[in-house]
Each structure stands twice: as structure tokens, then as C-alpha cells.
Amino acid sequence: MGDIGKNAVKITTIPEQEVVFSLYKSEDKVYARSVSGLYNNWRWVMVWATQLFFYGVPWLQWDGRQAMLFDLEGMRFYVFGLIFHPQDLIYLAFLLIVSALSLFLFTAIAGRLWCGYTCPQTVYTEIYMWMEQKIEGDRIARMRLDDSKWNLNKVTRKSLKQFAWITFGLWTGVTFVGYFTPMRELVPSLMQFQAGGWETFWVCFYGFATYGNAGYMREQVCKYMCPYARFQSAMFDGDTMTVTYDEARGEPRGARSKKASENVNGLGSCIDCNICVQVCPTGIDIRNGLQYECIGCGACIDACDDVMEKMGYARGLIKYTTQNGMDNRWSRQQMWARLLRPRVLIYTTILMTMVLGMGVGIYYKPDFRLDVLRDRAVMARYSNDGKIENVYNLKLENETEVVRDYDLKVTGLPELAIHFSDNNAQQIKALKPFEKRNVIVEVQLPDGETRAGSHKIFFEMTDIQAKETIREKSVFIVPSN
């Protein structure tokens, strides 16, 4: 055989011996330590804000109906005073684009603060961990309980925890379904075991998902299932604010007496207590540098600041800062000055344009619709009194929750006039809430008023009560003699 090189590895295979390679690395369970401080307080502010909205909105009433309801059966979506229909799907597309751009902008400025403070996975994990702590005790108590043999105390605590987790998960499922089925109808039907199959399925499915993700999978969702952790680095640059360990100040780390000075024996400020690792919800060591598992929650900052205060050292060994700010030892004012960099300005300009366009579109969205279809069977004809006549099928739709009256006229050619097929102009009056109505109209033009051919005309429909007008284009055919 030829020379295989000094860095090559020779592999000898043994006949009939199966070699198994594991593609999954088993990891120890993360027992996150409780922490207090500024950023922990902000996390709980966001927990309360998001959950009060989520659990409270389905119970709000607006003009005799649920304030926010996505009525799939009726194909209507109520958002407080706004009503959207399937044809308004463009607004959903705008909303998704705005959400994506907001995420890009926020990530470019402040990293993964969305993940650390408002992501549903983080919020529900925080709630489930709080219940676990209240029932099973602090970090050490939970570890001892899990390692202990099964006894009355362990069975009682584990059972209470499971009951609390399952109850909260199911109520979360009920609330989720309450956005699609009126909450004040859903809850009584569930309590009386009269809910439909789909409602029951989604309550259980969403409840189980909450229970599993927040109770058991926790950091595994962030590390292995969430795509955001994988592509976030594409939006980072040297001026993106992240949770950072001040290595120049902290190293070399080492334990010491509480009475020792900060740099005793040539040591850095880090006393190697590992509390920053113990409080991390994803179980990483931020002292090893920024990692994709870091969700930017700031728990390690609160923990480290608390330790620094007890040691009598300056806070900020771990802090929110930028890579450029850390390397150049910039002040906070200098870092804020880098906020208005090209990437941020571009994201902000596009985002504000989209938000403004969406807002204007919703503000001027009419509460009724008019679709005009020409009668293709007859291009043009002459009426009994010698006028040229084209027939149109008008599809009217009242998208409001009250009865509406409308006025209709046609423009584009002189002497145009609308003639209703049954001589009853009341066809465009008294449209009931969400009623759709087809109206056949004949548009007449005196013979000889204009040249032969196709002419552009406009149907103008006006809501008499709201004084709103919409305009739809069509064509009028004048036959050649």
C-alpha cells in the first residue's frame, strides 16, 4: 500500500461486528436556579403583560360580541371595531411582513431579547418553573427530590406539580380555542361535555403542547427546534447588543475569601462561583463566549451583579453590551451613537413604510364591496325606446354589523342611466348585516351619443349612512350600425 500520510487514521473493521454512532448527545437536566434583579423583574413584567392580554381578551365584549374572534365558520375575523373577510387576506400578509421586519430590526439592535422576554416558549417555561419551585422547592431541593427514592413526600409533590401543570396547560388550550369559538359559549359547553369534536381536540392538543414544551422540553425547544437560533447570526454585527462576559476584567478566574481584594494574587474579578451557569435557563456558561443557545434573558447578569455586590466589587462583569463596545471600551453613550447605523436605518425605513401603508389601508378600507360583471351572453342591445343597453350583474356585500342603504350611479359617458331589471331601486336598500346580494341592472345610453366600440365606465356605490363611496371600473359596448 502507498503512504497514507501522518494525519490519516487507519480504521480496521471487524467482520460481523455492528458499530453504532449516536447522532444525539444526551444532556443532563437543567435545574435553573431562581434569581432576582432588574432583568428578572422585567421578564415578569412581560409575563404578566402578555398573559393578561392572551387570557383576558377572549372575555372582552364589543358591541354585543366577542372583541377578538376569528370566526372560521362564518369566514369573518373580528378585531375589536374592525371586521376582516377572506378577501382582506392582504392585511394578513402585511402583518406577517411587518412582524418579520420587526424581528430583524430588533435583533440587529438588541440580539435575542425577544426570546428572553416575550417568546411564548420563554414565558410559559417561566410560569411552569415558578409552579415547580413553589411545589418542589429551590434548585437544591428539586435535585435532591429527583434523586431520592419514591416515598409519600415525593409522590405528593410530584402529583401536585403534575396537577398544576396539566390544569394550566388545559386552560391555555381553552383560551386558545376561545379565539375561534366564542369563549362564553365554549366554556359552558366544555363543562357540560357538549363541546364539538374539533373544539375538544384542539383544547387537548394545545394544552398538551404547552404542558410538554414548557414542562419538559424547555431549553430543548430553544436549542434544537427553534429555527430563529440558527439564523440569528445573519442579523448580528459588531454593534448588536448581547449578553457579554468581560473576559479582560474577569480572567483569570478563581475562588477567594470574601474579604480578599478584587485582584488578589493576580486573579480577575470572576470568583468562579458558577452561579451564572446555575441560573441560565438553557444551561450554558456565558464565560465561554456568545453561543447560539443564549436567549438574552439577562438572568446571568442579575446573578453576577448580586455576587459582585456581596464581594464589594463593581457590577457589570456580565452585562448587555456590543462586541465593538467591549473591544474598544466604549461608554454607553458611544454605543448608543452606533445605533443609527445603515442596517438599522434600512430596516427602520422599510418597517415604518409597511406599517404606515397597512394603517392607511385599514383606515380607508370600505365597509361594503361592489363587484361588477358584464353579461357575456349579450354584448349590447337596443331597448324598446331605441336606447343602447348593456346588462351587468352587480354583487353587493354589506360587511358591517348593521343594516345599510346604498346609492348607485354610473359615470364615464354623457347621458348614461341605470335601469333596474325589475324597476325596483330597493334592491340596493336595506342590506342586512353581512348580506350578499346580486342585482341585475341595465345601463342605457341614447343612440348616437358616442362612437361605436368599447368605452370605459365607472359604477359608484355610496353608503348613505357613512358617506363612503367605492368605485368599480367596467366597459360599455356601443354597437356599430
Automatic annotation (TrEMBL):
| Key words of the record | 4Fe-4S, Electron transport, Iron, Iron-sulfur, Membrane, Metal-binding, Transmembrane, Transmembrane helix, Transport
Start and end residues of each 4Fe-4S ferredoxin-type domain = 260-289
Q: Which domain of life is it from?
A: Bacteria
Q: Membrane-spanning regions, if any?
A: 42-60, 90-111, 163-180, 200-217, 344-364
Name the Gene3D superfamilies for this protein. Answer: Alpha-helical ferredoxin, Immunoglobulins
Pfam families, alphabetized: Fer4_18, Fer4_5, FixG_C
The cross-references to PANTHER family, in alphabetical order and at most eight, read: FERREDOXIN-TYPE PROTEIN NAPH
**Under what name is this protein listed?**
Cytochrome c oxidase accessory protein CcoG
Organism encoding this protein: Methylophilus luteus
